[in-house]
Design brief:
flat; 58% helix; mainly alpha; three-stranded antiparallel β-sheet; 18 helices
């Protein structure tokens, strides 16, 4: 979901509030056209020259531009909503797929692995399902590779080479696209466990957890839950993931671009470009050629499609389960196809912007309209021409800029979709699925806590099946239908009572 009320939620900073609204992007145009309006007003007021045009052009162009800007904003918001629907589809298919794997694939397969090996196998595949959404998040943000704090721990188990030969040219595309010459090698397999914001070496576990360990874990959990969210100094959800000593530093899970001076003063970007151009001209020729060659080399590096690679591994696992019943296999393949189709739709939204010619023509037309607006309204508004032009610029350019900003809702803007929140929410739900122990239904259906025929009959299921004479099983009861007929009569009485009690007489 998008960020909720970023103006009034979270840590209060003036710059954050300023960047949340669209004013940060349109205030240079507001200043420019307000100055034009001020010039027109002062010249017409204090000189004999009257800068006045007929307002016929205002009516015609105003209607056309309003309709065009409305179409531009509506098309962008449609992409925004479609992106949200696609992420809902990923969450639904991921949970369905995890439920099929966890519940419908048995832990005991004839001639297969042991129950413990089956549990490890299924949990590993569900970790890959979680990795799919994380990989989609990084892909949509233009962050290539797999070496991220929230992605690498989930997929580091996957093979790196096409055969037993570990030659660099034998590395699979999933990993080759992320490697560079500055950090070759493989990650160490020594396990670590996270402690706070750091890591320490994990001891070798032998035996089972003792009660003190469980009590200590529960106590820490209660203390963590008792602290208010705004009082917690750090938020590090990646500390619950597996940890390994990696041969290269992992990139952060969330790495928004830092705000610079040019983000608040747009004219500064032009000055920086001039400065870089001058510095490049002053650079020695051999150094400039070396940097240009390195830049060309980086562009031709192998680019792997990480979400697609994860789908392929999940599909190969489905093919490996040749003992799965056809209905379960069909459900797994159907959800995998949905994940792949949804991913392609997200890629279409992210990498198919509106044509530049359309955007440029619309903006230039709007600038011309706003430039000549003061000339057409001064005769009627006088001094109000200045605030009127400023408000017209704020409205029209603001809607145009909003359409441009939400056109790609997968970046780090404060008004974009909360992809990190989506992935963390799905992570919690997948762990909730794997926490399900698949109990025997008899263990909870026929218990003293179950009153299946309430409100008419409030006896528990354990009492009903414990034996003895009652109207559901014994013909001794006079005037009462024994057996299933009596059960049906109880259910009809339930319907009457529920229908009567649940209707509010005030709303009748």
């Amino acid at each position: 979901m998008p960020t909720r009320d970023p103006l009034f939620r979270g840590r209060w900073t003036i710059m954050k509030r300023f960047r949340t609204t669209i004013i940060n992007d349109i205030y240079p145009e507001m200043i420019f056209f307000s100055l034009v309006a001020t010039m027109v007003t002062l010249v017409s007021k204090f000189t004999t020259t009257k800068l006045i045009f007929d307002n016929g052009l205002l009516t015609v162009l105003g209607t056309v531009l309003s309709l065009t800007i409305s179409f531009r904003t509506s098309s962008s918001y449609e992409r925004y909503q479609e992106g949200r629907k696609m992420w809902s589809a990923i969450a639904t298919s991921s949970k369905n797929l995890a439920g099929l794997i966890w519940i419908h694939i048995p832990n005991e397969r004839e001639g297969g692995p042991s129950p413990l090996e089956c549990m490890i196998e299924k949990k590993t595949m569900i970790n890959l399902i979680q990795a799919f959404s994380v990989a989609c998040k990084h892909f949509l943000r233009g962050e290539s590779g797999v070496y991220y704090q929230d992605l690498f721990p989930l997929i580091c188990v996957l093979p790196r080479y096409a055969s037993e030969s570990h030659a660099p040219d034998n590395m699979l595309p999933l990993w080759q696209a992320s490697e560079d010459t500055s950090s070759p090698g493989e990650p160490s397999r020594s396990a670590t466990i996270p402690v706070g914001n750091g890591y320490k070496q994990s001891p070798s576990f032998s035996g089972t957890l003792v009660d003190e360990d469980l009590k200590g874990s529960t106590k820490r959990q209660v203390e963590a839950n008792g602290r208010s969210a705004h009082k917690q100094k750090t938020f590090d959800p990646e500390q619950v993931l597996p940890s390994f000593e990696v041969h290269r530093p992992l990139k952060p899970a969330r790495d928004p671009p830092k705000a610079t001076f040019g983000d608040y003063i747009p004219f500064w970007i032009f000055l920086k470009w001039v400065g870089r151009t001058i510095a490049r001209k002053a650079m020695p020729q051999d150094e400039a050629e070396r940097r240009a060659k390195l830049k060309r080399k980086m562009k031709h590096l192998c680019e792997s499609n990480v979400p697609l690679e994860i789908i392929l591994f999940l599909s190969s696992y489905s093919a490996y389960l040749n003992t799965t019943v056809p209905s379960v296999a069909s459900g797994i393949l159907s959800n995998l196809a949905t994940l792949q189709d949804t991913y392609q739709q997200l890629e279409r939204i992210a990498y198919t912007p509106l044509p530049f010619a359309y955007q440029a023509h619309l903006r230039i037309s709007l600038w011309i309209y706003l430039f000549f607006l003061p000339f057409q309204i001064y005769a009627k508004f006088g001094w109000l021409t200045i605030p009127g032009t400023a408000f017209a610029t704020f409205s029209l350019v603001g809607f145009l800029e909003i359409g441009h900003q939400i056109e790609n809702p997968f970046t780090y803007d404060l008004n974009d979709l909360d992809l990190d929140g989506f992935c963390l929410s799905l992570q919690r739900e997948l762990h909730e699925i794997t926490a399900h122990t698949n109990p025997d239904p008899k263990s909870y259906i026929f218990s003293a806590w179950n009153q299946p025929f309430a409100p008419t009959d409030r006896r528990s299921a354990a009492d009903l099946v414990a034996g003895g004479d009652h109207e559901y099983v014994s013909p001794k009861f006079k005037g009462i239908h024994p057996g299933m007929s009596s059960v049906n009569l109880t259910l009809i009485n339930n319907w009457r009572e529920v229908d009567l009690v649940t209707r509010d007489p005030k709303k009748q």
